[in-house]
């Protein structure tokens, strides 16, 4: 690794640590959650009204989960997502989630629907979880509202961070 790369690494790391995310190594012998060398964990993310959706009321493994309201035409329930980026663990309560189906995702506190940022390549929608209380598209997590579609990414300013990219940091 050359010097330029090292500098870039520091830059990326400090962005993560400022924006309600933490990066830490995931030792091989302890890889019970995700088989990744490094974990990126969301410690806070917000609805458009500034409510933090990361809560200790929904633990996934040892981490505070991201708790969302999720509904289809008939039912409304909750889904807790792992705050570890790239980790697909989720727990649904009060609603049966079906693979391939699209859902409406809302804040558990103010019930506002999370905004659609763009269309997903699968035809569903990318909804946004903001990484700061100002709820700007400058920094957010985008994820598909279709169960089973694994499209998700982190946008920070001009930078687009995908799961593959994270392992290179
Ligand atoms: Zn809210
Ligand atoms: Zn999708």
Describe the structure.
- By secondary structure, the chain is mostly beta strands.
- The chain has one domain.
- The protein is built from two helices and twelve strands.
- It has helices spanning 3-18, 163-166, and strands at residues 21-25, 38-42, 54-60, 63-71, 76-81, 90-93, 104-106, 116-119, 125-130, 139-144, 152-156, 159-161.
- The strands form three sheets. Strands 3, 4, 5, 6 and 7 form a five-stranded antiparallel beta sheet that branches. Strands 8-9-10-11-12 form a five-stranded antiparallel beta sheet.
- The longest helix has 16 residues, at 3-18.
- The termini are close together.
- Residues 1-9 have low confidence and may be disordered.
- The structure holds zinc ion (2 copies).
- Residues 47, 49, 51, 107, 109-110, 112 line the site of one zinc ion (ZN).
